[in-house]
Structure formats: structure tokens, C-alpha cells
Amino acid sequence: MSVYKPSAARETRTSGRRAALLAGCAATVLLTVTACGGGGGTSGTTNKDGFAQAAQNNGALTVWVDATRMDAAKQYQASHPNVKLNIVSYDGDANGSNYLQTKVQLFNRTGKGWPDVVFSSQNNEASWAVDAGFAAPLNKGLVPDATLSGFAKGANDVCTVDGTLYCLRNDLSQAVLWYNAPLLKKFGYSVPTTWEEYQALGEKVAKEHPGYLVGDAGDSFTPEIYLWASKCGANHITGPKAVSVNTTSEACTKMAKLLDVLIKNKSMSISGVFSTDFAKNEADKVLLMPGPAWYGGAVFKDGLKTPAKQIAVAPIPQWQGDTSPSTGNVGGGTWLLSKHSSHLKAATDFLKWVTTDNAYQGEKAPGFPAYTPAAENWLKAQAASGYYEGDLTALKDASSQVWSDWGSGQFSQEAIWAATVKPGITQGKTIESLLPAWQDSIVKYAQADGYKVAK
Question: What whole-number distance in Å separates Cα of residue 154 and Cα of residue 222?
């Protein structure tokens, strides 16, 4: 869940992918659109709402979304037939592709092409989009305070720079403990409430029911589930260009040791929940699975095709003796509005609708909405769906327990983990042994992005 400012080293590593993306328009899905991009120029600007606005017109509104948010854009179009809407599908900057920033740099050079509104699966686009002159301020008049006050406490912190709001959070991705209720009962186990109990259960499962799983450590966002929840200080953003990095503290090492034990006894997978291997060989072996709020639908219901009335949710375990509950966060995503838009009224209307309206967020959104009234409706809709076993209270409780000292810098923790730690795990190395290398890599990425690093 990070965003990445290009450096010479990173440009080399990702040049092939970027070249393919920049070749791009042929690979995008376009609805009522004939070119990649949108927005307008900057001639005839007027100062309003805290920034110099382009001359406005009634042209088509260009919205960029990932595949998951495509339904939201289509639903908006269906309910607003008088709005001229160009919907462009792109990767949503998933896994640190950096596509949006790369394209904005191109649009800035050519003076055209900016989308009016864009969704990103990352939570730190504001860390570069403000300096790049792309993101419009939202709390200077565009979006009413009454609307902004409805977002969950802290939800839009990742969008705020020096007191100005530059994006809106789409959904909260707080980590909880998903589990197979009938399977847990069949095996005679109880839901663990502490990490110590969780490890002990994993060891018991390995002996008594080999092949069954209590978790997965094969994804690039693994640290955002486990290390973040453990209060590992690997990613503490202390200022606009300052970060504290310490991956070898007790909070980090004890979680690493826990993961190593369970990986070694094979009660924790290293395949990755979205991998073909996991879906083919381990879909029906999941007993427990720490993961974000969207796992219920995206992983269990849609991905693994787990039948209804099996999956339940509980609070993520805490370390014994820790009286301040904490959890991690995986994604959530943000919506940005372009300062270059020549359709600000329509763009702002879309932005407000897609983040707050019950028609989408409260009823159709795949994740836990960041807008509190919509979240209440979303929880009711999930409970009424008949898919889950038991209530979903743990999701609501966890939404206010995300540990605040794991920040959203420009560098990508997911990309760093994927390049530094994941290959080592695959080769049989322990996560604990890889913590120093992880720290060194974080420091290098951060410094490449101009961060002052404290250890």
C-alpha cells in the first residue's frame, strides 16, 4: 500500500513493464472513449476552491478505474444518463506498477491527457500527486465539510498534506481473522485470541490435520497483515520526507519467528491467496486466515468459491499482555480529482457519489466503505446476504484499530517485500534471517525517494 516516486535504479527495474503500459491505450478497456486521458488544458484559468482552475466546459468526463471499480463507474453512468462519461480501465497502480505517476509525468510534459477522476489501489498517491500538480484540493470548497465529516476517523489521513485534503479514501482494509466455522468446530478447536494461541493452534493443526492452513505468507502484502498488526516499526513516516525504519525490534522479530514456525510445519502457505496453485490445491484447506476486510468477498466467495455459511470473522489476535489492540491494513484505495479538469462540477459529483452513495458503497462495494453511513449499510447488506456464518462485528471494531505508526510513504513496502523477502522465503530462508536485508532495502528505496531515514 504505498506509492513510488521513480528513481534511476527503479526505472531500470521496471522499464519493461512501463514500456508495455505506456504503449498502453491498446490494452485499456474504453467505454465511449477514443483516446487515453481526458481533462482540459490550463488556459483561461480562474482561482477558486484553493487552486487555479482550467476553463470549464461540458465535454465528456474521463474516469480511470481498475477492473474492480469498473462496476462502480458503469453504475454511475446508468444512474446519470445525462452525463457524458469516458471510462478507462487501467491496473489501478496495483503492486507498485507506478502507471498513474508515469502517465501524469507524460501529461505534464505534453500539457494534455489528464483524467478528470482516477481511482488508485494505493493509499499514498498524495505523496507525489500534490508535488506533481495533479491532485486538486478537496476541502477548500469542492467537497462540503458535511460530506467530509462522514468519513471514518483517520480514513483520509493518507490523503492529507499540510492540512489540505487531496483525495478521498474508497474503503478501509483493516485486517481481521477469517475462519471456517464448521471446520473449526469439527476439529474441536477454538478461535485464538492471542498470537501465542494462534501459533500453538498452527502447531497442533500441523500434527493433527496436516495439509490444513492457519494462514498464508506468500503475498507481497504479507507484512501489512502480520508485521503491521504486530506494531513492527518498519514504516513509520515521521514527516513529509522523513521515515523511521527498524525491522529488528522485538515487535518485528517475534512475529517473524511465529511465521517461520508455521511456514516450516506447513500450516502456513507461501503460495499467495491469488495464485493458481493456492486455488487449485489449498482452497478447501483453509481453517484460519488473517487478512483484510475484502478477503470475505474477493478471496473466499469469488476466488476460492468457499460455500456459504462456512466463513466467519473474528478479531485479529493480539500479543498476550498488550492492552492496546492493533491490526494492519491492506489497500483500501483512494480517489483523486485532477486540478486540470475542465469538468469540475461533474467530476466532483462523481467523486462524491462513488465514495459515499449507498447505491454503490452501501450495497455493491466489495470492501468496507470508508464513509461511515455507507459502512453501516454495507455491513447490513453483507449480513443479509446469507453468505457469512455469524455476525460481522469484528470488521467494524477493527476499522478503528489500525496501528497508526505504519505510514504511507512514496516507496512501496509491497514492492520491497516482493523483491527482498519473498524470494528468500521461497528458497527456504527464514523471515527472521531476512529482516536485516528488508531494512536495508527499505532504507535504500526511501533514500532514493529523497527521504531522511532514522533507524
Answer: 23
